[in-house]
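// run 5 | inverse folding | seed 20
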């Protein structure tokens, strides 16, 4: 738990005992004179600190939070009766108390019962609320960890087999020096730099994300001798240098397009990618061909963890500020559009 919450909890304890000390002082004032009054207040506060922490740190965690409510009530009642009886017996025995006025005996008993009841009730209430708060914090932390796992999953989505195959291709071509080999190494270097360094950041510039997409597309082009129909339309590139997004969001959408377009495997397959700014909205769009004999339900869209993880990340960073569409245009084309309202 964060230090500010620990500080708040400590303040609650200190504030309660400050108030309790004042109450004890003014109630005991009817029966004792100074300096016995001061000693009585000190001893009562020390005694009740023990009762308070017994309830707060033992009874609440061991009984109430374990759903042993009858045992908790019984133990709290025993604490109340024992502490009250102890004070009733030892205070008149230790201090010279004035019970000369009518009703002072009854008032003395009422004061003790009320004080001990307050101590136990407040300790129970604060102990229960503290642990409920800790449980809620754990739930929040687990939610954040889940979101981080989705993000980590996205960062690791680049197919290691594809990278391995690319290295094998570079190795095979390296026996005959060519521009293709040099370009392959350069594109792979850029992509590995993104994987190792940029994907570990919370956010990177849109321009960096697009550069990684171009590197991935470049490797595919080199693998298929630059015969692939992959087109890019990117506007306002200087502005995209300033904008930041979580890494791998756009890259994953592009990978989905590569996966489902059958590009390089079927004639007529293509991918069209655009990244533009319209007013206050950043718009990323891919349109790709669909594999032959591969039907995608209109109401569902691409299946798989990629889109689900993207939506979780968008919910975390752009809640209420994004629009995500993933649907077929017709029987041969599929469209994915992500719009982010940059200024809320």
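// decoded
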């Amino acid at each position: 738990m964060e230090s500010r919450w620990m500080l708040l909890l400590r303040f609650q304890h200190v504030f309660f005992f400050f108030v309790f000390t004042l109450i004890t002082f003014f109630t005991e004032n009817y029966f004792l004179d100074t300096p016995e009054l001061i000693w009585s207040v000190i001893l009562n506060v020390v005694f009740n600190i023990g009762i308070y922490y017994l309830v707060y740190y033992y009874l609440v965690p061991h009984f109430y939070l374990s759903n042993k409510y009858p045992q908790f009530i019984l133990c709290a009642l025993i604490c109340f009766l024992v502490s009250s009886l102890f004070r009733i017996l030892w205070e008149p025995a230790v201090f010279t108390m004035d019970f000369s006025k009518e009703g002072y005996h009854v008032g003395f008993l009422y004061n003790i019962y009320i004080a001990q009841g307050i101590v136990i009730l407040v300790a129970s209430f604060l102990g229960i609320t503290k642990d409920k708060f800790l449980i809620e914090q754990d739930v929040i932390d687990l939610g954040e960890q889940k979101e981080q796992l989705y993000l980590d999953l996205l960062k690791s989505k680049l197919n290691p087999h594809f990278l391995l195959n690319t290295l094998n291709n570079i190795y095979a071509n390296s026996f005959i020096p060519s521009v293709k080999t040099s370009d392959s190494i350069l594109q792979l270097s850029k992509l590995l730099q993104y994987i190792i360094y940029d994907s570990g950041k919370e956010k990177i510039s849109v321009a960096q994300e697009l550069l990684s997409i171009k590197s991935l597309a470049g490797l595919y082009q080199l693998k298929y001798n630059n015969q692939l129909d992959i087109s890019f339309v990117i506007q306002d590139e200087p502005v995209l240098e300033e904008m930041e997004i979580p890494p791998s969001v756009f890259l994953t959408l592009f990978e989905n397009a590569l996966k489902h377009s059958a590009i390089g495997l079927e004639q007529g397959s293509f991918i069209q990618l655009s990244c533009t700014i319209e007013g206050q909205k950043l718009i990323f769009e891919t349109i790709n061909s669909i594999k032959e004999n591969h039907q995608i339900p209109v109401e569902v869209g691409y299946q798989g963890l990629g889109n689900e993880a993207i939506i979780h990340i968008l919910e975390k960073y752009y809640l209420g500020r994004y629009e995500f569409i993933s649907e077929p245009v017709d029987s041969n084309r599929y469209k994915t559009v992500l719009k982010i309202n940059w200024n809320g």
